[in-house]
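SEVERITY: medium
COMPONENT: batch folding queue
REPORTER: lab tech (J.R.)

DESCRIPTION
The queue accepted two submissions in a row. Attaching both inputs and their returned structure tokens so the on-call engineer can compare them side by side.

ATTACHMENT 1
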Amino acid sequence: MVKLNKIYTRTGDDGSTGLVDGSRTGKQSARIEAIGKVDEANSAIGLAAANLETGPHTEALYRIQNDLFDLGADLATPCADGDFTPSEMVLRIVPVQATWLEQAIDAFNERLEPLTSFVLPGGSEAAARVHVARAAVRAAERAIVALADGEPVNPAALAYINRLSDYLFVFARVLNDNGASDVTWVPGANRPRDS
């Protein structure tokens, strides 16, 4: 159980922040950049959820938000030896979390027409908000991959964040009348015909 009695500690006034293992790192580090991008994505998902009627879709987004807090905890726990086994004291993303996203994507896809072009990020306001969240998740993924270039990162975490952007893309199509209201890309549509 997490208990937060005091929000400010003053320990970060020097530009550093504490990690789960007790070590400190600079707030500009690749690890903190990745954690921050996950937080931004989580906030964008919260905004998307706030735009929907309470029901199965919002419950799914709340589940994902919880998973993103797990992901933040995972990233905040360095692992030099590459053993990303979760324990009572160490929270890690596990493969079943990405599997849940895959199953949800498959269920969504059963009711969607196949795409014949790329989809522009828009349509309904609800879908547009989910596309904004998808773009934020992609930014988080890039930050996590950048961290993985220099330090070990849980492979299940990488799989989860990659799958999440796929989930949000398909979910946005569901919110666009199961794809019927998607706005599709027309390559070169605004160029003069003789160019």
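ATTACHMENT 2
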Amino acid sequence: MVKLNKIYTRTGDDGTTGLVDGSRSPKHAARIEAVGAVDEANSAIGLALVAQPGHSPAASILLKVQNDMFDLGADLATPKGALDGEGFEPGEMVLRIVAGQVEWLERAIDAANESLEPLTSFVLPGGSEAAARLHVARASVRRAERAMTALAGTEAVNPAALHYINRLSDLLFVLARAANDQGRADVTWTPGANR
């Protein structure tokens, strides 16, 4: 269990932050940008969560996702080879996103999508407040994915982590549609409507 007695440490005053392996990285580095984008997306998911009805299936899904997002942040904060050899296998000191977490997302997407009205157009990010918040979370997750793929262009990133973040935006999309009366209250795009 994590125990934090002191909130400020002053160790970041020089513009660096600590990684899981004990190394320090500039706060503007691609790895830290990716970790920050995941944290931002998790906060947006939290905002979407509070708009869900009490003990709804979507609320329990989002709470589980929030926990996974902390796993994802820890994964990104642990460079390849740090503490766990040369691969991306989880170890005693290393927390990695694993295939089972991605598979769980896929099952959740399939289950939520089953009862949705078929898509006939692109969906505008709105409708109910709950749906709109889920769309904001989805867009935040897409930004996190862009930060993660930018990192992956220069440094090794756990492939399961990339799969997870890609599936997560799909899950948030179908949950947003479900929040719009199973897609019946979706606001759809009319191409060129205001020309």
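NOTES FROM REPORTER
The radius of gyration is 18 Å.
No errors were logged for either attachment.
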